[in-house]
Design goal:
About 75% of the residues lie in helices and about 0% in strands. With about 675 residues, the chain is mainly α.
Length: about 675
């Protein structure tokens, strides 16, 4: 029809006549078909008075106008009908959503279905109904609705996601993965969701395969399987002495020693062991007798055996009532045996991505404080706790949970540990400091730490050294504290400004340290703290920082050099003495000229800034005669440098050079 309309409106008479002829033909065909339909009821006069339409152009024009008017009227009626039905469909969709939120999935399905009767091509109704079908475990219907949704919108992400879930529930693992891959193709930004879905499919497939294998073992009369069944039956019997249960659990832990045994344990409801009142009482008691301690330790050992390398068992264990909440209580129990085995159990989770995801579903707001307290331990508990913390700190959800109790509980403990550095396990303390440094990736936590005067003072006290200052453990702590300070100096606040002088003084003293890593970090801290305080700049210039930085620049270490030239640019910008000392120790400014050719633009920019400050001194420009300084600055100012600040610094240096030395 669009082509006909275009032809009828054409300026080309041949095209227009052809369109008229085709229109006439269609009108005749339409008339003939109607006549055939009504032939049984109506007598039709088929006599053709005149077949030449061109003989009556006015009639042709009238017929065409009527045809177009009918088309327009039909289109308006259809649009009006669709608007009315879309309003009704949307209202029914909202009713369905309300029923879904309230958990009435059958009613939700009914409302979505009524909406689809009003509007058959509304994609949201199909996907919403599919979601409701999933809740009722009607997976085939959910898949069908997802397929219809994709006919409405082939890029519907939700349809692929829900279809994948339905296929997974039906154990169609290949089809589920294909749906998730399609989902990623539609939106590559959903990589995290894709990874989670694929991981879920992998775990579910492994669970099914393991249980099929276990079933075959049982049918074959596997002795271990029969032993696990018998022990679980005995442990589940009520009214026995606590030592009876302890012994049974110990025996059970020895039998559950491989994947098949772990599967037997799970499929025989082994994780429901807390349903036994005596076992649950010992596990949850706030103050435990020696017998209860022994039973609790036995239970933790059993769970370690059942969950080692088995992600499905890890999921099932944390899904049991009391377990997740009780882990924090066990960590703070004060009983070394219980703490040790609890840490060992948690470590099974923290060392893999899926396990961490399971842990993070729990309330971990107290964990940072509880785990950091183990730094005071002199045994393996300190290392285990720090390993867990190191695994968790990279998780955004853990960082968010830590905020709640950070300033009230964690900070006081941390500052106490730093102050008592000589009395705790220093290797563990260094790892605890590194953990806090990693948590500074969270802007909220970093701001709290950087604002804390007590934290800064504790860091400075540790840097002061003491009787153990030369020990390897202490040096690890110094290195970690300097890294933490560098992270905190990404913030700018009154506390940092107030303490900038003592911070820079400690770092200046560390520039002569025998450990090159400590020297590099101390230089980095200086480069970040000096902009906060002109007084700090004056103090370090008096302390000979210019000569030390020139020495580092000549040595050529890339990271240290980038920090050193930044320090020189800060000092020469606000201190004439720094400018004079730089010219005294590098009379022809060869160090700065070399840096102008560096590959790192930040280094080049700082070198140009430093040079422009030194050119304010009488005679400085003359020292550059015969060098390639003009070409180097022209190249950077003229466009080789991509950063505007580097171009600007180079242009300023070039201008000052030309003013000071016209030659």
């Amino acid at each position: 029809l669009a082509n006909l309309l275009q032809g009828l409106n054409s300026s080309d008479s041949a095209v227009r006549e052809k369109a008229i002829a085709e229109t006439e033909q269609r009108l005749r065909e339409q008339g003939a078909s109607r006549e055939e339909e009504e032939e049984s009821r109506t007598t039709v006069n088929r006599t053709l008075i005149n077949t030449s339409v061109r003989a009556f152009p006015s009639e042709t024009k009238a017929g065409l106008n009527g045809f177009l008017a009918a088309l327009e009227k039909d289109a308006k009626e259809r649009a009006q009908w669709r608007r009315r039905n879309e309003q009704l469909a949307n209202a029914l969709k909202e009713q369905g959503n309300k029923a879904f939120r309230e958990g009435d999935f059958a009613l939700a399905i009914q409302r979505y279905s009524e909406g689809l009767e009003k509007l058959r091509d509304k994609q949201e109704l199909y996907t919403n109904r599919a979601q409701a079908y999933l809740k009722l475990r009607e997976y085939e219907k959910a898949i069908s609705d997802c397929e219809w949704a994709l006919k409405c919108n082939k890029s519907c992400l939700k349809a692929y996601f829900l279809m994948g879930k339905a296929h997974l529930a039906l154990q169609h693992f290949t089809e589920a993965r294909q749906c998730y891959e399609k989902m990623l193709q539609v939106d590559p930004q959903k990589e995290n969701l894709f990874r989670d879905c694929v991981s879920e499919a992998r775990l579910e497939e492994k669970r099914v395969r393991d249980e099929e294998k276990a079933e075959r073992e049982i049918q074959a009369g596997n002795v271990a399987a029969l032993s696990i069944q018998e022990l679980l039956q005995r442990i589940s019997s009520p009214g026995q002495h606590i030592l009876y249960y302890t012994g049974g659990i110990r025996l059970l832990a020895e039998v559950v020693n491989n994947c098949t045994g772990q599967t037997f344990f799970r499929t025989n409801n082994g994780f429901s062991i807390l349903g036994n009142e005596t076992v649950r009482g010992a596990f949850c008691a706030s103050s435990k007798s020696p017998a209860e301690v022994e039973l609790c330790v036995s239970l933790l050992l059993l769970w370690q055996a059942a969950c080692a390398g088995n992600e499905e068992n890890q999921r099932v264990l944390l899904a049991q009532p009391h377990v997740g909440a009780q882990l924090a209580e066990l960590l703070s129990s004060g009983t070394p045996q219980i703490q040790r085995e609890t840490l060992a159990l948690i470590s099974l989770y923290s060392d893999n991505e899926n396990g961490r995801r399971l842990l993070l579903r729990q309330d971990l707001s107290r964990w940072l404080q509880l785990l950091m307290a183990f730094v005071k331990s002199t045994d393996a508990r300190a290392d285990s706790a720090m390993n867990i913390l190191s695994d968790l700190t990279g998780e955004k959800r853990f960082q968010t949970q830590c905020r709640a109790m950070f300033s009230t509980d964690v900070l006081p403990l941390f500052t106490q540990l730093l102050v008592c550095a000589g009395q705790v396990e220093q290797a563990a303390l260094a790892r605890a400091v590194a953990v806090l440094g990693s948590l500074c990736a969270d802007v909220g936590l970093r701001a709290q730490l950087a604002q804390s005067r007590e934290c800064w003072q504790a860091c400075l006290q540790l840097l002061d050294g003491g009787p153990a200052a030369s020990s390897p453990g202490y040096q690890q702590c110094v290195f970690a504290v300097l890294g933490l300070m560098m992270n905190l100096l990404l913030e700018s606040n009154g506390t940092i400004q107030d303490l900038a002088v003592p911070i820079s003084g400690r770092c200046l003293a560390l520039l002569s340290h025998q450990d090159g890593r400590i020297v590099t970090r101390a230089t980095g801290v200086l480069s970040r703290v000096l902009p906060a305080s002109p007084s700090a700049v004056e103090e370090v210039v008096k302390g000979g920082v210019v000569k030390k930085m020139l020495k580092f620049l000549k040595a050529g270490g890339q990271l240290t050099s980038s920090y050193a030239i930044k320090i020189l640019s800060i000092c020469t910008k606000s201190s004439r003495r720094a400018q004079e000392e730089l010219l005294r120790w590098d009379k022809r400014l060869r160090v700065l000229l070399k840096l102008l050719e560096a590959g790192d633009e930040l280094t080049v920019g700082n070198a140009a800034l430093c040079l422009s400050q030194c050119l304010l001194l009488p005679g400085a420009a003359s020292a550059l005669l015969g060098s390639s300084v003009v070409q180097l600055l022209l190249r950077q100012a003229g466009g080789d440098a991509r950063r505007p600040s580097v171009q600007q610094n180079s242009a300023i240096a070039l201008g000052r050079l030309c003013v000071a030395e016209p030659r």
